[in-house]
Structures are given as structure tokens and as C-alpha cells.
């Protein structure tokens, strides 16, 4: 393993983050997850990842 690849790894690959979002948005996320056979967590991860990748 190269030095560069180890600097991009986290000690723990997950981290808990609590946020408050509008109820209407939470309902949309839940509905989308259910309709697509996913979880709320999965939808949030994918949405945030896509958003942050397109803003770089």
C-alpha cells in the first residue's frame, strides 16, 4: 500500500451525523427510499455524495 492511499483512509469508515431537516423533505426522502428499495441512509449518502461531487 502506498503512502498516498493510506492518507485517504479514515480510521473508522463511518461517522454518525445528526441533522434536522424539514418534515416535508424527510417525507420525500422516505418515499423515494421505499419506492426504490433503498433506505433513508442510503438515499441521503447518495444524494450528498452526488451534490458534493458536482460542486467541486
From TrEMBL:
InterPro entries in the cross-refs: Ribbon_hlx_hlx
Q: Which domain of life is it from?
A: Bacteria
Q: Under which name does UniProt file this protein? A: CopG-like ribbon-helix-helix domain-containing protein
GO BP annotations of the record are: regulation of DNA-templated transcription
Amino acid at each position: 500500500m502506498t503512502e498516498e492511499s493510506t492518507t485517504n483512509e479514515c480510521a473508522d469508515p463511518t461517522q454518525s451525523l445528526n441533522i434536522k431537516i424539514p418534515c416535508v423533505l424527510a417525507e420525500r426522502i422516505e418515499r423515494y427510499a421505499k419506492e426504490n428499495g433503498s433506505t433513508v441512509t442510503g438515499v441521503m449518502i447518495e444524494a450528498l455524495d452526488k451534490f458534493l461531487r458536482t460542486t467541486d
